[in-house]
Inverse folding.
C-alpha cells in the first residue's frame, strides 16, 4: 500500500512514480497536431471588441480536447500506481469530475492589445481572447495564488486536483508554485490575503482572522510527473517565459462518498481544517459580466 499520510498535513503529494513519459509526449504531440499553436490562436482585436465575452470561454462538455483525445489519456487513468494512490486519498470508487488541457502561452505570442487587458490581473485567463473554435483548452499567462474551490464554491473539500506534466518543465516554463499546508485554513475568497515575507515565505490570513506562515515550492519536473493537492491549497504560476507553450493535463477527481465519511486521507485532511468548508462566493475580482475589476498578482512579482 502506498504511504500517503503526508497528504493530511501538507495537502499536497508528488508521486515518486512517474507515468509513461513516452505516452505523455505522444499525447502532447497529438495536442500540437490538432492546431497551429502560435499568435494565430487569438481573435482579431476588432472581433473581440465587437462582442466581448468573458464567461463560458473554458473547455466544457462537447468542447474539450481532452474528450477528443480520451484514449491517449488512459496511460494516466489506468496506471496502477496512480489508481492505488487515488484510492488511498479519495477512497474506493472515486470519480473523474473534469479533465482538460491547460496551456501556458509564451509572452511573445500574446498581442499587445490583449496584454493591455490582462496587465496585473490575478487570473490571466486568455480564453476570452481566443478564437472560439480553440476554446477547448484553457489558456493562461500566469495565475496568482488561488484555490481550486474557486470554480466550485458550494461543493466543499470533496475532491482533489491531479496535474500531469506532459514535457519537461523548467523555471521559465510556467511551473506550478504550490504552498503546502495552506489547506488547514479552509476556503477563502480570491484574491487571498498574502504578505510576502521574503524568499519563499508568506503570511496568509483568512477573513475570520486565522493566519499562518507558509513556504511555496516551485514544481519543476519531467514528462510524466504527477502532483495532486487538496482544493484549499494555494497555488499559481508565472507567465511562460520560453518560446514554446507549456501544455499539461489537469484532472479534478471526487470522492465517491458525498458525506466525506470514507476512510481515506482526504477525510483526515478535512478534519484538520479550521476555517470555512465552503463559500457562497469565491471571487471578488470579477464584475457581473466576468471582466476583471480588481488587479494585483503576487506570483508575478517573484521573478524567475
Amino acid at each position: 500500500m502506498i504511504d500517503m499520510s503526508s497528504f493530511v498535513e501538507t495537502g499536497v503529494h508528488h508521486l515518486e512514480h512517474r507515468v509513461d513519459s513516452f505516452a505523455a509526449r505522444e499525447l502532447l504531440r497529438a495536442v500540437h497536431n490538432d492546431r497551429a499553436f502560435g499568435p494565430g490562436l487569438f481573435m482579431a482585436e476588432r472581433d473581440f471588441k465587437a462582442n466581448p465575452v468573458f464567461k463560458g470561454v473554458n473547455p466544457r462538455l462537447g468542447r474539450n480536447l481532452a474528450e477528443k483525445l480520451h484514449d491517449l489519456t488512459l496511460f494516466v487513468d489506468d496506471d496502477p500506481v496512480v489508481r492505488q494512490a487515488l484510492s488511498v486519498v479519495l477512497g474506493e470508487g472515486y470519480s473523474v469530475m473534469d479533465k482538460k488541457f491547460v496551456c501556458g502561452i509564451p509572452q511573445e505570442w500574446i498581442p499587445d492589445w490583449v496584454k493591455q487587458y490582462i496587465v496585473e490581473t490575478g487570473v490571466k485567463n486568455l480564453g476570452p481572447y481566443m478564437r472560439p473554435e480553440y476554446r477547448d483548452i484553457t489558456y493562461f499567462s500566469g495565475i496568482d495564488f488561488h484555490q481550486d474551490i474557486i470554480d466550485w464554491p458550494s461543493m466543499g473539500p470533496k475532491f482533489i486536483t491531479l496535474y500531469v506534466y506532459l514535457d519537461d518543465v523548467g523555471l521559465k516554463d510556467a511551473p506550478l508554485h504550490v504552498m503546502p499546508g495552506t489547506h488547514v485554513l479552509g476556503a477563502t475568497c480570491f484574491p487571498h490575503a498574502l504578505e510576502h515575507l521574503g524568499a519563499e515565505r508568506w503570511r496568509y490570513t483568512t477573513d475570520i482572522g486565522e493566519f499562518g506562515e507558509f513556504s511555496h515550492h516551485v514544481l519543476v519536473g519531467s514528462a510524466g510527473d504527477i502532483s495532486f493537492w487538496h482544493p484549499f491549497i494555494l497555488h499559481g504560476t508565472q507567465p511562460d517565459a520560453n518560446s514554446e507553450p507549456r501544455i499539461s493535463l489537469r484532472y479534478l477527481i471526487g470522492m465517491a462518498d458525498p458525506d466525506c465519511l470514507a476512510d481515506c486521507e482526504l477525510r483526515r485532511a478535512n478534519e484538520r481544517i479550521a476555517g470555512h468548508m465552503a463559500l457562497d462566493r469565491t471571487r471578488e475580482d470579477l464584475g457581473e459580466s466576468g471582466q476583471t475589476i480588481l488587479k494585483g498578482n503576487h506570483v508575478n512579482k517573484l521573478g524567475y
Observations:
- The helical segments are 6-10, 21-34, 45-50, 65-68, 74-77, 80-90, 112-118, 265-270.
- The domain at 6-291 is CATH 2.60.120.620 (Jelly Rolls).
